[in-house]
Amino acid sequence: MVRRKEKYFFKENQMKIGILTFHRAYNYGAVLQCYALQETLKNKGYDVYVIDYKQPAIESNRKIFDLKYLDRNKRHPGNIIRYLLHIPIAMMEHRRIDHFVKKYLRLTAPCHDYDIPTDFDAYIIGSDQLWNFDHTGGMDKVYWGNFKHNKDAKLYTYAVSTKCSCLEFLDDIKLKEVLKRFSFVSLREEDTREMLYDKTGQTVRVDIDPTLLANKNIWDRMINSKWSQRSFLAFYQVGRSGQHKQIVLQHASILAETMGIELIDLSDYKYSPEDFISIIRYAQCVVTTSFHGTAFGLIFQRPLLVYRLNDGNDGRCLNILSMLGLSHCIMDLDQPAKIQKINYSDVANRLKTFQSASFEYIDGIG
Questions:
Q1: I need a surface site. Which of 58, 60, 107, 156 has the fewest CB within 10 A?
Q2: Buried b / exposed e across 285-299, counting CB within 10 Å, b at 16+?
Q3: pTM of model > 0.70
Q4: Do 137 and 56 contact (CB within 8 A), yes or no?
Q5: Cα separation of 352 and 356, whole Å?
Q6: Of 160, 166, 164, 165, whose CA–CA distance to 130 is shortest?
Q7: What is the pLDDT of residues 308-352, one digit of tens each?
Q8: Residue 163 burial (CB < 10 Å; 0-12/13-18/19+)?
Q9: How far apart are the C-alpha atoms of 83 and 73, rounded to whole Å?
């Protein structure tokens, strides 16, 4: 059952694929990678839906008003005042992301772990950090393929990301049993592939994030050209708290001042996903700690600096930059921001190799 009508035209007997991912998260990267995978599969001729799975940890983070937070901070009136003042801002943030999801994603009816739709020929779990327990509140059984489905349906992952520490937590025998549920397993990082092999002896794939796989035209049609009339540095990281993140913001601010341009901070989600893309598209430089900040900097071939926070989450950025010969764009916290030369012709050639391998995988699904 689909929530709304879409102009999708498919041949008879076309394979029907359901995507399971973080599309309900209030995060630019989450909704954009979902859209990119949906469009890539659609362009390959599949009948594609995004399964509107209400993952408990993600749903908890969607709450705007939380009485438990007020109770925990009853002795800290300053925290409560700041929290209440932020509610209207949060409502606008949510409205922008929700509008994008309703406009661009082809959704099933909302569901839970016990009523995932069973009328699919194949399920693709991915991409994003679906196997990262920090984001899913532990091991989410749906994202690990443990849900009711048609016995003839096949399960795949695509560019699923996690941290090595999450895989270390799992018993080797249990992990082998879990992987048997999938026809093929595709990860996003080389280090997690190596660990998975060490623990299970199973060889799995590494594929690029769907934002880097999708036809660039899907982003071009979202671009708001009004941003081309300003000179600015685009800065983006997920979350603003923490001393290290403040250090990166300071580096970006100094670089923008040195360049004589303004700094646009995307980290506070004041902008729509379409504006997020447009701002990166027209930025004179992108400074980020985020994987999808990095990805869109690459897509639009922007001068790019990526700071590592050394918090266990840097692997995704380091991996893609290393793959594309851009390790010199990785900055440590004690390094001032300085624009690096990037040969995007060479980057494009390298990227084509990884795209070809990932397209081959998608073509062979089912």
A1: 60
A2: bbbbbbbbbbbbbbb
A3: yes
A4: yes
A5: 6
A6: 160
A7: 988 877 888 999 999 999 999 999 999 999 999 999 999 999 999
A8: buried
A9: 10
